């Protein structure tokens, strides 16, 4: 079992920055990919960024150059640094761990609101 808890969301003005954290607990030794997804009201959950077991990162085109995904293995924590935020970034952000063998794991989400 893996449990994920997101934090760091909030209200920020356009152009501002936030750093989201995803704290993991449980058996995370067989996790192959970690990532961030977001869901705006009335829309499907969409891919934001992932980082694989060897540190390779991928980003959605909409956030490339503005967001950075990273992890701290010692703290069992994944981060999403979000810079130059736009109103279209407003969504609930979820962290996701993909296991080599087993189901995906999701956190409960943290709200990010970008508004002036």
Instruction: List the uncertain runs.
Output: none
Count of DSSP strands: 11
Largest sheet: 7 strands, mixed
How many individual helices?
0
Approximately what portion of the residues adopt beta-strand conformation?
over 45%
Distance between the termini: 40 Å
Helicity, as a percent range: under 10%
Average pLDDT taken over every residue: 95
The rough form would be described as globular
What order do the helices and strands follow? Answer: EEEEEEEEEEE
Roughly how many Å is the radius of gyration? 13 Å
Derived structural class: mainly beta
Q: Descriptors for this entry?
A:
116 residues, mainly beta, 7-stranded mixed beta sheet, 4-stranded antiparallel beta sheet, globular
Summarize the structure.
This protein has 116 residues and is an all-beta fold. The chain is built from no helices and 11 strands.
Task: Provide a descriptive summary of the structure in words.
- It is a single chain.
- This protein is mainly beta.
- It is built from no helices and eleven strands.
- The strands form two sheets. Strands 2, 4, 5, 6, 9, 10 and 11 form a seven-stranded mixed beta sheet that branches. It has a four-stranded antiparallel beta sheet with strand order 1-3-8-7, with no helix packed on it.
- A hairpin with a 4-residue loop joins strand 5 and strand 6.
- The model has no long low-confidence stretch (mean pLDDT 95).
């Amino acid at each position: 079992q893996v449990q994920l808890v997101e934090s760091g969301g909030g209200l920020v003005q356009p152009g501002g920055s936030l750093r989201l954290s995803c704290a993991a607990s449980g058996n995370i030794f067989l996790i192959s990919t970690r990532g961030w997804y977001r869901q705006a009201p009335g829309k499907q959950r969409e891919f934001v960024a992932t980082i694989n077991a060897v540190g390779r990162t991928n980003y959605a085109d909409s956030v490339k150059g503005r967001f950075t995904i990273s992890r701290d293995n010692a703290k069992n924590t994944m981060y999403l640094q979000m810079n130059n935020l736009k109103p279209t970034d407003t969504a609930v952000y979820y962290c996701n761990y993909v296991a080599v063998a087993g189901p995906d794991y999701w956190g409960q989400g943290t709200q990010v609101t970008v508004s002036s």
